């Protein structure tokens, strides 16, 4: 069961949608589904799916959010596959893509109190918190990793 990361294609949307909804309301507000859809309409070229034996088990990506600034975006796993190191595989792939751009000086992630400790393992530091930012009881945890 070797995980495989491939570029997102529109045909993946039904599985991405299913996995996203399986992570609501604990990790995402259900209303964010349209935000994800809109993001994929604009940024699909830097979004990936994680598969095991041709089954989509997660997804995530990155974007350039400013001069010298890369952002991890919309990463999540099917709850049945959490705790197996697959999230780390996905994040490491996205971070590798970002660091291959010599203009990137800093990476950021906007997450919640439920996932910030995961990103700390990759060297991200908490910069600020904002209560109920994503939804009631889902706070913003803005984190940064400096590369230079």
UniProtKB/TrEMBL annotation:
Keywords: Transferase
Gene3D superfamilies the record matches: 3.40.630.30
InterPro entries: Acyl_CoA_acyltransferase, GNAT_dom
Keyword Transport part of the UniProt annotation: no
GO molecular function: acyltransferase activity, transferring groups other than amino-acyl groups
Residue ranges of domain N-acetyltransferase in the record: 3-148
Tagged with keyword Transferase: yes
Coiled coil: none
Protein name, UniProt field: GCN5-related N-acetyltransferase
Annotated source species: Robiginitalea biformata (strain ATCC BAA-864 / DSM 15991 / KCTC 12146 / HTCC2501)
Taxonomic lineage from the root: Bacteria, Pseudomonadati, Bacteroidota, Flavobacteriia, Flavobacteriales
């Amino acid at each position: 069961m070797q995980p495989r990361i491939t570029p997102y294609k529109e045909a993946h949307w039904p599985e991405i949608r299913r996995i996203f909804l399986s992570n609501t309301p604990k990790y995402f507000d259900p209303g964010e589904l349209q935000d994800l859809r809109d993001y994929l309409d604009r940024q699909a070229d830097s979004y990936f799916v994680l598969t095991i034996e041709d089954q989509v088990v997660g997804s995530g990506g990155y974007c350039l959010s400013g001069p010298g600034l890369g952002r991890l975006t919309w990463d999540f796993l099917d709850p049945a596959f959490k705790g197996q190191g697959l999230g780390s595989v996905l994040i490491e792939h996205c971070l590798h893509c970002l660091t291959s751009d010599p203009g990137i000086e800093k990476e950021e992630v906007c997450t919640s109190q439920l996932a910030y400790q995961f990103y700390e393992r990759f060297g991200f530091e908490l910069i600020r918190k904002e209560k109920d930012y994503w939804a009631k009881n889902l706070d913003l945890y803005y984190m940064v990793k400096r590369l230079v």
